[in-house]
Amino acid sequence: MIQEWLRESKHTVVFTGAGMSTESGLPDFRSASQGIWRGIDPAACASTYALHHNRDVFVDFYRMRIKGMLACQPHVGHRIIADWQRRGLVQAVVTQNVDGYHQQAGSDNVIELHGSLHTLRCLRCEQRYPAERYLLEGGTQCECGGFLRPEVVLFGESLPEAALLRAEQEMAQAELCLVLGSSLQVSPANLYPRMAKENGAKLVIVNMEATELDYLADQVICDRKIGEWLLETDKAL
Ligand code: APR
After folding, report:
1. N or C: which end of the chain has fewer CB within 10 A?
2. What are the pocket residues of ligand 1 if the criterion is a CB atom closer than 6 Å to any ligand atom?
């Protein structure tokens, strides 16, 4: 049935969360087995408070995340979504992920609601550097002496206006919204699949655990991993 929806939909938006990258080797945040927030309080390491008052913990946390992101890579699921875009089956990817794996796999029109872990920005002069710098000795310092922070949205910060606007425009046109690997617990990101549904789109959620929007979905797939489901669906198209 979903194959028909994919073929018939004139505007399909894929919405992804951390569950999209676990098969690449990156942990997600809230799954019972491996979620990062199972062992760490996000406020202590990934917030504006941590950036200004807990800097060592902040740097250690993002060094660990950057190391993981650079060591891993997109998996077949990311490549299938990029292929569906090339074939006109998907028009946009709205992601909460900061790993850039959709773009690396060949997707375009990727809207990053929570920024990108691939770039660092100086708090003082706004100069930007590649994330690899964080792994070097003294890598948190800008040439001007300022402190470098990753260009991700921290807890306590608002999401980039331009991304929010683009996501809204995509969901307004969506006839089909595929949610892949998100618990849909974090707002305002979790408002976008809801927006698509309210605008008349069909909503499909592929997630190993229950999500906040399962009750709204036209179909919930919770017994297969995202990579497997994308492979199967692609074969049946
Ligand atoms: N296949 C299917 N589902 C999976 C897979 C997989 N291979 N791997 C993980 N999942 C599911 C988990 O069961 C979990 O419910 O993906 C979901 C990921 O949910 P979260 O860990 O909450 O991640 P996400 O929804 O992206 O979190 C949103 O919270 O901490 C912030 O900024 C961070 O962007 C993140 C936001």
Report:
1. N
2. 17-19, 22-23, 28-31, 35, 42, 96, 114, 181-183, 185-186, 207-209, 225-226
The minimum-distance atom of ligand 1 relative to the CA of 181 is 16
Q: What topology is assigned to 1-25+73-114+159-237 in CATH?
A: Rossmann fold (3.40.50)
Distance CA 232, CA 60 (A): 39
75 is catalytic: no
pTM as predicted: 0.98
The ranges assigned to domains in the chain are: 1-25+73-114+159-237, 27-71+115-152
Residue nearest (by alpha carbon) to ligand 1 atom 17: 182
Give the distance (Å) from ligand 1 centre to CA of residue 20: 7
- The tens digit of pLDDT for each residue in 97-125 reads 999 999 999 999 999 999 999 999 999 99
CATH number of the 27-71+115-152 domain: 3.30.1600.10
For ligand 1, atom 6: residue with the closest CA: 225
